[in-house]
Amino acid sequence: MANQSSPHVKTFSCPNCAGSVNIRAIGSTINVVCSYCSSIIDTNDENYKVVDAFTNKVQRRTIIALGQRGELFGTLWETIGYMERCDQSGQYVWSEYLLFNPWKGFRWLTEYGGHWSFVTTIKDQPKGVKGSNTEYTNFLRYKDTEFLLFNKGTAKVTYVLGEFYWQVRVGEQVDLQEFIAPPEILSMESSADEIVWSLGRYVEAETVRVAFQVPADKPMPVQTGVAPNQPSPYSPEYTAQIKKFWKYFVYAIFLIHIGTCFSHSRETVYKGYITFTSEDKGKAKVTPQFEIKERTTIDINMSAPINNTWLEIGGDFVNDENGETEEFETGLEYYTGTDSDGAWSEGSTNASRKIESVPKGKYHLNFEVSGPPLGTTSPSDPSTPTALTNNPVIFDIEVRTGALIWENFWNALLFISIYPIFVWWKKRKFEINRWSESDFSPYAVDDSGEDDSE
Questions:
Q1: Pairing state of beta strands 342-348 and 325-339?
Q2: Does residue 277 sit within a domain?
């Protein structure tokens, strides 16, 4: 059951304007700001001395009214103070509501850019990466959670209203460091007198609105950007689940692919050679007929003992029963030599061609081969034809069934990877937006605005 705040409220007249001033955190409040004239009053003084008068030039209409109660995280809190602060540039302004419960003490509810955090002051100080309590770097560890430095600067009070547990002043300034591990944020505020650590947790705006019964005529601040400690919709648990199922699918399609390939027998249905000479230039030569006994994928392997030259190969795979023809072209080139680094070679004397879904039947191959060894061009000067020679080129051919085709596997892998890649991209964009206002972003951005973190 939620704790109930004390119903006791102490009321006195403002010594500056005689307006009614309430104290809700009796015994804890040191300063209170008159809601009528904005004078800051010292409640420790029995005469309620005014320590700063007419500080606030313009009255604010706060989203949560002072004195409003709301339940967060199982505890009923009462809003007793409100302040606004900004950074050293004055560009970034945020609101802080002081909450009070007589059994739980004080908490803060902060709002920046429409994003809210529930903040608790902590006594146990976080540790730096080297285990030191005083050496703070870009990383901090608190209760087994690692926090990254997000912001370093100053925080200046620009507006106050209500009561506070210290002598707050407009213009009061502290050094500020913020470290994030969404949905949490660690803040260190330091002055000449003390260092205060606090831990904040992101709270959805709708949760705040319902808890404190914000009326409809007070619309919640419009959310802009991504808050430093805003939880990503692509949580580690969600992405880990996607990764796990992606692995399952990869294993499945790999096993299906291998099983499909090995369900067909691998055998050599033809092996032979054809001899080409310069007299065969422009002529096609035909292999003997061979038989394929089941629908399968075939490998046509071709080779020739060439060196420091090349061959161009044109082939036809012909079904003798219906005349259907699969044309293909490939080439061989192989070069060797020596230089200051020793012997070298490049290219290959072998080539292959796969043909998928070949039905059973009887087939033969037609080949036409051209290249320098057959007197088409000079190896030293490709623009100069050589004299035709009768030196033969022995062209070896082997046809095997049950060839392993990886194209289908890679296509399936690409298909099942589309959604994980999309989630990775969206998650990365979310994090880049989160860090866009930080000087310590792990996502470097060049002058053109392009991500350069890789």
A1: antiparallel
A2: yes
Write down the residue that tokens 């951005």 correspond to.
445
pLDDT value at position 161? 87
**Alpha carbon 321 to chain centroid, angstroms:** 57
| Cβ–Cβ under 8 Å, residues 246 and 417 | yes
The answer to whether residue 68 sits within a structural domain is: yes
**Residue 224: φ, ψ to 5°:** -125, 140
Which pTM was predicted? 0.67
Specify whether 226 is located in the same domain as 298: no
Asked if residue 257 belongs to a domain, the reply is no
Domain span at 332: 268-401
CA distance 122 to 187: 10
DSSP state letters, 180-194: EETTEEEEEEE-SS-
> Residue 38, exposed/middle/buried by CB under 10 A (0-12, 13-18, 19+)?
buried
Spatial distance between the Cα atoms of 113 and 302, rounded to a whole number of angstroms: 68
Q: Confirm if 19 and 13 have CB atoms less than 8 A apart.
A: yes
- Both 213 and 295 in one domain: the answer is no
Per-residue pLDDT, 56: 54
Looking at the fold, whether 210 and 280 belong to one and the same domain comes out as no
In total, how many domains does the chain have?
A: 2
Local mean pLDDT, 10-residue blocks, the chain (454 residues): 52 69 70 68 63 60 89 94 91 94 93 96 77 60 92 92 85 93 94 90 95 88 94 88 91 82 78 89 90 90 93 94 94 92 92 91 94 64 47 90 79 91 94 92 61 53
Q: How, if at all, do strands 393-401 and 325-339 pair?
A: unpaired
Residue 85 lies in a domain: yes
* pLDDT value, residue 38: 64
